[in-house]
Design brief:
2 domains; mainly alpha; single chain; 22 helices
Length: 459
């Protein structure tokens, strides 16, 4: 099977998995939020946001190193396993030696410490899962990955929903999540046929760290955004506001399933053409168009129908979600235009350039949130998201340096039209008119037709 066929097949499997995952996520979100309420959901979201950051911190870029290494050696997998286990144990020890106390004092949400101690203690287990996952990704076995992730989602719902119905509150989600992590570990190690061993070779550790440090710095900086909701919204606006932001972000994430799938497979795919600059530039330009085309309609429809559906699906208590959703969706839509820029720089080993972009991004986001959240609450968070768009000029500059100027023309027009339509309730329904014009534009119809033919031809 050719690389192109493997990439397309892998992308299809991941997209199908994400599509099925959307259905499960929607059912889960609707039922859980109605049963446990904003305050309990906000408590879980606050802890999960901190877990997400520490999890990304602990990965240390090892997954990308394993996927991208030129020669597959068993000893490298063993060394990566040992390194991730050590990192996980160090992070967990730091939390128990004082981290939990500091977090409780700062966030000051009832029962935060109890939930945090349970969830964050799972860090070592979740980190070592990166090794068998990398083995599967290196083989472009996205069919197996997709099936494992879908099975994990089923397990979460099978555990969390009955417990929530029985009145377990936030613990329904916590126990469901723990069950999901245990099953994920079992399936990954089984399906990858990786049998871990302890190893410690200083030279090999140095090799992994040297490659991973730039990637890790970029990732650490960007993932700081996951702390803004629990640390700033939680402190200044309370658990319910954390829940509203978390649900709005979750809605955007669920609707962005194609973007997520594309990003995951992009590093493996783009790495195969890193020495062919014109081909790489063309892939990036087409990727931008497809990202906007896939994400724009879903975000627009959610923004149009959300105010009508939210009270019926989630309950009247969740109506404030739609006050911040358009701003978060607007930021996500424009960020999709640059989603593959980071992947391109990673495969060209320009990790520190991505790190500098992410540092600028988090300065704009966290700085904007610090200024705006205490004054405007939920809307302050949304406008802080929009402020991050100012930083995309930097990553564009780096990409132009590396491979030349991608073709932004069609993607920019589509993004502008979809972005304006998100605010139809705020500025009037005339905001949809530019989207209609762009949709009828001959260049749009021609470009979409070409992509459809390419997909059919690749089957």
């Amino acid at each position: 099977m050719s690389l192109r066929q493997k990439v397309l097949q892998g992308g299809i499997f991941l997209a199908l998995r994400e599509g099925c995952g959307i259905i499960l996520s929607l059912v889960s979100i609707v039922l859980l939020t109605r049963m446990i309420g904003p305050q309990q959901y906000g408590l879980y979201a606050a802890v999960f946001g901190i877990f997400t950051y520490l999890y990304n911190l602990g990965q240390f870029g090892v997954l990308v190193y394993l996927v991208r290494m030129e020669e597959e050696r068993r000893q490298i997998y063993h060394q990566a396993f040992t390194l991730l286990l050590v990192i996980g144990l160090v992070l967990m020890s730091g939390l128990w030696l004082g981290g939990f106390f500091w977090l409780e004092q700062w966030i000051n949400l009832p029962r935060f410490g109890e939930v945090a101690k349970v969830m964050l203690s799972a860090l070592p287990l979740t980190l070592i899962n990166q090794v068998p996952l990398a083995k599967l990704e290196r083989q472009l076995d996205y069919r197996t990955i997709a099936m494992i992730e879908l099975a994990n989602q089923f397990t979460y719902n099978l555990i969390a929903l009955p417990l929530a119905f029985s009145g377990f509150g936030v613990w329904a989600m916590v126990i469901g999540w723990l069950g999901q992590q245990v099953q994920d570990s079992i399936l990954l190690f089984t399906q990858s046929r990786y049998r871990p061993q302890f190893a410690w070779q200083p030279q090999l550790v140095q090799e992994i760290v040297q490659y991973s440090l730039g990637f890790s710095a970029a990732n650490w900086a960007f993932q700081l955004r996951s702390l803004v909701n629990p640390l700033l919204i939680g402190r200044f606006a309370g658990a319910e506001a954390v829940a509203y932001v978390a649900l709005a972000v979750r809605m955007v994430d669920v609707l962005s399933f194609v973007r997520t799938s594309t990003y995951r497979i992009s590093i493996s795919a783009l790495a195969q053409m890193q020495s062919q600059i014109p081909r790489l530039r063309k892939a990036l330009s087409d990727g931008m168009n497809l990202q906007v085309l896939a994400l724009g309609p879903l975000l627009a429809m959610a923004s149009w129908f959300g105010p009508i559906l939210i009270p019926y699906l989630f309950g009247a208590k969740w109506i404030p979600v739609m006050s911040v959703f358009p701003l978060i969706a607007f930021s996500a839509l424009w960020s999709s235009l640059f989603n593959l820029h980071s992947s391109t720089l990673y495969v060209l080993q320009r990790n520190w350039q991505v790190a500098l972009f992410h540092i600028l991004h988090i300065i704009l986001f966290a700085g904007g949130a610090c200024l705006l959240v205490p004054r405007f609450g939920l809307l302050g968070y949304g406008w802080a998201e929009v402020a991050t768009l100012l930083g995309y000029g930097l990553i564009h500059f780096y990409v132009v340096q590396a491979i030349g100027n991608p073709d932004y023309r069609i993607a920019f027009l589509w993004c502008s039209a979809f972005g304006l339509s998100l605010f139809c309730y705020q500025i009037g329904w005339w905001a949809i008119f530019p989207l209609l014009v762009v949709g009828l534009w001959s260049e749009t119809r021609q470009t979409v037709g070409q992509y459809i033919q390419q997909v059919r031809g690749a089957k």
